[in-house]
Structure formats: C-alpha cells, structure tokens
Design a protein that fits this description.
The protein is an alpha+beta fold. It is 20% helix and 35% strand. The chain has a 6-stranded antiparallel beta sheet with strand order 1-2-4-5-6-3. A hairpin with a 2-residue loop joins strand 4 and strand 5. The relative contact order is 0.22.
Length: 178
C-alpha cells in the first residue's frame, strides 16, 4: 500500500520550486481520536506530505528519470495542528543541488497561518524506474496537476525571507532545542 499525501500540485519551476495542496480528510485523524486526543492529522503525515511534494519536484524536473531518497532532515517545526477539513498549502524550494543530491526548504500554511516549516531536508538522487513505474507516475501527475497562477517555466522563483533556513529559528512548540 502506498500513501499519496499530495492531493494537488498547483505550480512548479524545474529545479527551483513547487507548490501543492494536502486536503485533510475526516478519516486521516482517526488514530489520534482513538487514543483520546483531539482529532488532527499526525505530524508525521504532515511531514510526509512536505517530503512527497519535494520528491515531485525532483521527478518532474528530471522528466520522471530520478527521485529523491531522504538522507537527513536538519530542522522541522510544527507551528499549529492540522485539523480535519483543512487544506494545507505547501511550498517547497530547492536550496542547493549537486550531482548526487539536493537540499530542500519550505513551509505549509492554512488560512495564512504557518503550520509546518522545514530546512535542511537532504536527499540523494536515485533512478525512479528502480522503485516505481515512471509511466504510472506520469499518469498520477496528470490527475493531480491543477495549475493555479503557475509561474512560467524558467521564471525566477523567490521565497519570502522568513522561509530561509536562517530565519526558521525560534521558540516554537515542538521545535528542537538549540
């Protein structure tokens, strides 16, 4: 069984940036509610949504030839809970690219409020065909790609300063201590 945690891709610029949406269904919170906690999407699934969107950037940018294999996550902060019925708007930027891998940073927002932010997400490049059928991934992309104000290919992608790794530090709840 494979979990698909990116419901929509709304824009992308090869090897630069990608945006997408994770819509939280009313079934995805059942683990927390069963344990007596407030219904919410577990943070691990929120993080997985962010990482899957970054992997989409690699697959699309390489014309479905490569994918990313996560090696390290330097920093992830969960600023708010993600509740059933909410839409998490994710934005991921490629910070650094090398022949053998790449580094991502990004954030997720709901109604203008930051819910997740991350930096230093490093992954190695791997041949996509060794892990998944590239044609199946192309079909899936055709089903979830819904451009909304997409940047034209080759347009410079820029992120607000508060996205950059040096500006992610703070005393947010759940954040690792420095």
């Amino acid at each position: 069984m494979k979990f698909r945690l990116v419901d929509k891709i709304t824009s992308w610029v090869p090897w630069q940036t990608i945006t997408g949406v994770k819509a939280v269904s009313f079934e995805e919170y059942s683990l927390k509610e069963a344990l007596g906690e407030q219904p919410r999407l577990p943070e691990t699934l929120m993080l997985e949504s962010f990482l899957q969107l970054g992997n989409w950037l690699v697959m699309l940018s390489s014309d479905f030839q490569q994918m990313g294999m996560l090696a390290r996550i330097q920093e992830v902060r969960f600023h708010e809970s993600l509740l059933p019925g909410q839409r998490l708007e994710l934005e991921v930027k490629l910070v650094r690219r090398r022949d053998n891998g790449f580094e991502l940073a990004g954030r997720g927002i709901v109604n203008g409020k930051r819910v997740i932010s991350g930096a230093g997400c490093v992954a190695a490049l791997a041949p996509l065909a060794e892990y998944q059928n590239p044609e199946d991934i192309r079909v899936l992309f055709s089903e979830i790609y819904e451009p909304m104000g997409a940047l034209p290919l080759g347009a410079p992608a820029s992120l607000p300063a508060y996205w950059m790794p040096e500006n992610l530090a703070g005393n947010d709840a759940g954040a690792p201590s420095a």
